[in-house]
Amino acid sequence: MNQQKFWNEKFSREDYLYGTNPNDFLVSCENNFKKAHRFLCLGEGEGRNAIYFAKIGFEVTAMDASDVGLKKLERLAKVENVQVKTRCIDLNEWEPKKKYGSIISSYLHMYKKDRKKLFDKIESCLKEKGFFIGEFFSKNQLNYSSGGPKDLDLLYSVDDFLNAFPNCTKHKVEEVEIELDEGKSHQGKASVIRVIIQKN
Ligand SMILES: C[S@@+](CC[C@H](N)C(=O)[O-])C[C@H]1O[C@@H](n2cnc3c(N)ncnc32)[C@H](O)[C@@H]1O
Fold it and tell me: Which residue among 91, 108, 114, 141 is best mutated to probe the pocket of ligand 1, counting the most ligand atoms within 8 A of its Cβ?
């Protein structure tokens, strides 16, 4: 099953799978982002982060493979009276044309074989001194039942990030145990990798 079909089925429900509040770690990093710069959310799904950052004044674009997820994002943006540009695309097909000062992602489950190419694209479209910040399930998440894929190829290791982004400074690449409380689908103890990566 391709990503679009898989996620369209998951998002075909009235409520928001991961809630409508933004991811805590991304919010805690917001001082790294500059309002004057373009802000990109990768694998943004139903839009909880995109809406939050648009609400506090960023010019936000959200990309995702799921048109169903992005429609829910657009619906919420209307309710919240904010603008978010959406683009329905498989990130394996994405060819970045613009530069971004800020790129975020939460729980983007990319296959291991596709990651290097995506990370290279993220690095190439980051502005000088721009930030890529994200939170991802680690391989140790297999020991928990708080959400996420049960396929090792969709889970991350610290080395996935340390071995990529050659033209960036890695301020934080760490595996931590956290308590998740994000909608119905992310609840309980979890093992995640948090990254704060800045283009040189
Ligand atoms: C676990 S959900 C997380 C959604 C959102 N980031 C959040 O935290 O609420 C994973 C998202 O990544 C998207 N995704 C997975 N693989 C993708 C790909 N290859 N291209 C674009 N989007 C993808 C899915 O459509 C889904 O919206």
Answer: 108
110 Cα: distance to centroid of ligand 1 (angstroms): 8
The protein residue with its alpha carbon nearest to ligand 1, atom 26, reads 45
**Cβ of 24 below 6 Å from ligand 1:** no
Q: Are 160 and 112 in contact (CB under 8 A)?
A: yes
Q: Which domain range does residue 157 map to?
A: 3-199
Number of domains in the chain: 1
Q: Residue 28 is part of a domain; what is its CATH number?
A: 3.40.50.150
Task: Fill in the DSSP letter of residue 112.
Answer: H
Percent of the chain, pLDDT > 90?
Answer: 98
Ligand 1 pocket check for 90: Cβ under 6 Å: yes
Summarised one tens digit per residue, pLDDT across range 42-86 is 999 999 999 999 999 999 999 999 999 999 999 999 999 999 999
